[in-house]
Amino acid sequence: MSTYLISNREVITNKGKEAFSNDGKKAALPNFRVAECKVNTSTKKITYSLLSDLTEPDYSKIIDVVENRLPKEQLGGTEYMFYDLYISMKDTGKPYSDVLFFIHGYQTTHEEELQHIVKLQELYLGDNSNVKHLIYLSWPTSNSKILTYWSDKEDSIITGQALSRIYLKLNKFFYTMFKKYEQENCKQKIHIMSHSMGNQVLKQMMGSLNEKYIIPFVGEIILLHADVSADSFENSQPFTKLHKLGQRTHIYIHKGDDALTISTTTKNLSKRLGKAGPSNVKELSQSTFIVDVTGITYDKTKKEPFFTKVMQNVIDHWGYLTSSQEIEDIIKILNGEDERRVANRKRHDLYTNYFYLSSENIIQSI
């Protein structure tokens, strides 16, 4: 199991060791650093080490490490991360060894991010999941007050643009390994999951990418309670390109999401995708699906210590952590289960790509 943290937070030095700053008020940087994480499952503590920074990675060096059995420590940054994940996915000895790339939302300190990583491993990297590796995108979000939308949005733009460059590096890695040097493909999948304002980051990434460079090597794309406009899949907006990136996209919405109500009424006047759903369901691609979780129940024991006091009261915005029903549904999608055959889903009477997930087998009208 490999876990990596990539962040455009400020890097500080404490007692001679590099670490990411915990200050959420700092502006997002245009470049990322990569860190390798170690998670102690018994104590639920996480430590990480920043990898050497590279101005321009050389993925041909990975071939030397693979073919000549050289130590991987000579690699740095994305060279090291891509190599380690490739080897871990290829030589697992198990049928599934997928990677989950996760983008968090707003109001998250760096200390909370580390706790979040541990929780994601616990929920989504277990024996019942095909996912065995995690890449966590850490970006600075203001965390002192609830009304901090505009600074977060500006940071999300910078972060999304930087993330597009990481995507292009991954493209270059794929070309070098599998086209140029014809290495064995690991035959595993990379999935993307983004929560709340993390979807702004993903949207900015897609908007920064030229369509000719979009390669469909992503498996599942899961948009959780997305704090982006409800029309994000219309009129050639960036999310209209998501179907070119992944095999399927699932949009999880909750019509009583209080956090997105706040976003709509106090920070951005447009309806939010994660609350209202797509404004025109008919315009979605055939591989894009809606999962309405308004009717699910939440596990009282799943309130997380890293939630702020405000977030404790809007758990419908955090169903991927607080509802066993939503968690199980997401895992089934990550495992590649047919969207029409996922247990406890009911399909909309008119839209074949719209599903309800409810604790009461009652279909609510929209």
Structural account:
The structure is a single chain. The protein has 366 residues and is of the alpha/beta class. The chain is built from eleven helices and 13 strands. The chain has an eleven-stranded mixed beta sheet with strand order 5-4-1-7-6-8-9-10-11-13-12, with helices on both faces. Strands 2-3 form a two-stranded antiparallel sheet. Helix 3 (110-124) links the parallel strand 6 and strand 7. The radius of gyration is 20 Å and the shape is globular. The termini are far apart. The model is unreliable at 144-150 and 361-366 (pLDDT under 50).
N-to-C span: 42 Å
User: Which oligomerization state do the chains in this entry correspond to?
Assistant: single chain
What does the overall shape look like?
globular
Which regions are unreliable across 5 or more consecutive residues at pLDDT < 50?
A: 144-150, 361-366
Rg from alpha-carbon coordinates: 20 Å
Amount of helix: 25-40%
> What is the number of E strands?
13
What series of H and E elements makes up the topology?
Answer: EEEEEHHEHEHEHEHEHHEHHHEE
Strand order of the largest sheet: 5-4-1-7-6-8-9-10-11-13-12
